[in-house]
Amino acid sequence: MIIRHIFLLLLTLCWSTQVLAAQTSANPRTMTFAPLEFRIPKAERVLLQNGTPVYLMEDKELPIVSVSALIPTGSVYDPAGKSGLASLTGAQMRDGGTRSLAPTALDDELEFMASSVESSFSKDLGMVSCSSLTRNLERTLQLFSEVLLYPAFDIKRFNISKQQAFELLRRQNDDPKEVGDRELTRAIYAGHPLGRFPDRASVEAITRDDLLSFHRRFVRPDTMILTVSGDFDRNSILKSLNSLIGSAKPEGKLDLPDIPDPKLQFVPELLYAPKKINQSVIRMGHLGIKKDDPDLYAIRVLDFILGGSFTSRLTMEIRTNQGLAYNVGSSFEVGRRFTGLFTAETETRSEATARTIRLMSSIINGVRTAPVTEQELKMAKDSIINSFLFGFTTPASVVLQQARLEFYGYETDFLDRYRERIAAVTREDILRAARKHLHPDAFKLVVVGEQKEFDKPLSTFGKAITLELK
After folding, report:
1. Domains, the chain, ranges and CATH?
2. Among positive and negative, which fits the CA dihedral 342, 285, 330, 76?
3. Angle at 396 between CA 392 and CA 400, to 5 degrees
4. pTM summary value
5. What is the pLDDT of residue 23?
6. DSSP, residue by residue, 241-274
């Protein structure tokens, strides 16, 4: 028996030594692994009895449920002379109480249940959302549906909100970076609703009746999309949603204003915003692309290489090599309903302003004159493809991603084919896209700062229009 044990021990030692030897001889530089596979989780799509789509995904890990409503509205539909109406309407849907609860009563009940209901309208997307413990879901859904469909727009809360808007307008020029961003957007979208911003007169003109009318016109069950994720019972929540929202009927015929796409033209313009600061804010850009542009995937890779990463050309040269700025970058904002923007930005010391502008323009022009390197291409594609899965880390992100595809009219297989389309991008694709969509000689250039401190006058770059910051 003892001899048998010794024999087994020797065999074990021999096997362990061989395994250890194999492990120590492996070279990590030559090791290969099977490609990682990631399949996008799919939410269930259901229609309520009135036709409102709902995307559902259960997750029992935590006793929490999240619900959202995506609404096709926003500041692009603000009437002339009343810029800020959509923003106020979106905020006051939640803050102004409902037909059954005054604002303070709504606040108190949500706080008692540890629930939340939020609402906001951006440029072309309205969102109303709620989060609740599973045990309080039924009541939270009731409050969510009232905020969504039956807001009261309490006059006292409305007046407070207008006063807060006036205060924000009073301080809107305090941050020079915000000034640069605003004035660049205003210049690129000149003459289009996307280029309008609220001022005191437009906010002053907005009344409570305007909020009621805006809500009645745009918040409709026949245009919204719902998402539900978390710890819920499918049959129970669909019953509740059908009772609270699925039974609602829109008032009259859908009448969305016809907002044309911005006119695609490239005309240079130099804008100077005087401000006593010890650095200059530089913003440049022009109109970009929409979601259905065939160069979308080449543009995504170009973004990473040019100014969208820590290894980008703009960052490496202006920040790392020249030490001219801490923050520098560029990107194409892909428009979903309207053409988006290409923008490049940085902040630098005043005495390096002209030098930095020239350098940024030169780097941007560089991707138009010669193909990117193979190394740049590989790093960009690998990074984009490998980071793709982080857009689906929670059930809430999964249902929102799928709802957005329908909301903005994307192809149903857009996400499924995204990585393979990125992987197929070539150096020639990027060069062609850069030449087509980048026009450094037609940039709108906005500079905020104190011109007497600049290394060269702005007239070096053309005739400057001086902005009056109000």
Report:
1. 44-246 (3.30.830.10), 269-466 (3.30.830.10)
2. negative
3. 80
4. 0.89
5. 53
6. HIIIIIT---SSS------PPPP-----EEEEEE
